[in-house]
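Researcher: Next sequence.
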Amino acid sequence: MTDSYSPSVTKTDDEWQAELSPLEFKVLRLAGTEAPFTGQYTDTEDEGVYECRGCGAELFRSTEKFHSHCGWPSFFSPLAEDRVRYIEDRTIPGRPRVEVRCAACDGHLGHVFEGEGYDTPTDLRYCINSVSLRLRHA
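Model: Next structure:
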């Protein structure tokens, strides 16, 4: 978990709203969630690198993406640990989670879950909102 933090990409809410769609702003800047099974990348199998839609930082590779059938794109590992940051999320009483944010702009990406039994190398599921990402094809 990260205690003190200062993003390298900083903008005012007005600047973010001018650049992002209303849904992108809701998810990336207000920690919202897109509806399950509606995201552009939920079932995408194209090769490439997934970038933060807010700032363009490279976050995940398609080689770490897997089908979890949870309604959002799932990855078993970020491109590198310094690309994301983790925050304890206790917004749902009795169900603590770990929020995943872009380390560069502090944009909300989704959550990471451990120990769900998926056949992946890390036993982690990064459950990420499609609207937080942009796929740059290989």
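Model: Strands lie at 48-52, 58-61, 65-66, 74-75, 84-89, 97-102, 108-114, 124-128, 133-137. Residues 42 and 73 are 4 Å apart (CA to CA).
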